[in-house]
User: Fold this.
Amino acid sequence: MDKAINLRPEQGESTPRAVAVLATDPAGDAFIPPHTHRRGQLIHAISGVMLVSAAAGSWVVPTGRGVWVPGGMEHEIRMAGEVRMRTVFVEPGTRADLGSECRVIHVGALLRELIVTAVSLPLDYAPGGRDERVMELILDEIEAAPALSLHVPMPRHARLAALCEELVRDPSLPAALDDWAQRLHMNTRTLARLFQRETGMNFGAWCRQARLLLSLPRLAAGASILEVALAHGYESPSAFTAMFRRTLGVPPSQYLHRPG
Assistant:
């Protein structure tokens, strides 16, 4: 069962400086209930996998990646395995280019080392010195980092969103456009257009992406490729591995342990 925890975000929001970095190493399979922060955050997984969910969708954050969450956006975090989390809190208005939407980024070697260094700095570091330059470099690297396709978008249409949430909660459920159209009392073409408009993806692509990305937390928690493949609607481990490699570039056995 998930273990709900309170990370005391006020530690990162009450600092007099525009940027603060905190370290959190919660117990395995922890859960942070829905909450908001006044400041924007980069939530970085040094190890483990996190699933960050908000109204607009879910973002999978494997080891060596991070998710930017704008200030004021309600979100929750589920952790798979032993997660080591590092969070960069950024005062609103500090950098406009950080963005107003969630996105997962690649955390390269430089950004990772800057974040590790910043954890040990005092929250009230002296302005104008080395410590502040470290924080400014962190923001530069976040802005420059490429976004990754680790997002499962959610529609705004309430009844359609409810069906999507069912699949996110249980990726083994069958999903067919005709069946969903019947449940929503729509014809198939209307649903296909609605799905594309609401998520930016066609129905089949969304289902494949959701099943694949949601496999990452299960793999991180120690499930076998066979278990994950069958639980996520694939006919065989080889079919799952082929889709994984085609989408993410490497087989599942390599992906979670790949350096950031």
In short: The first strand starts at residue 3 and ends at 4. The chain has a mean pLDDT of 90.
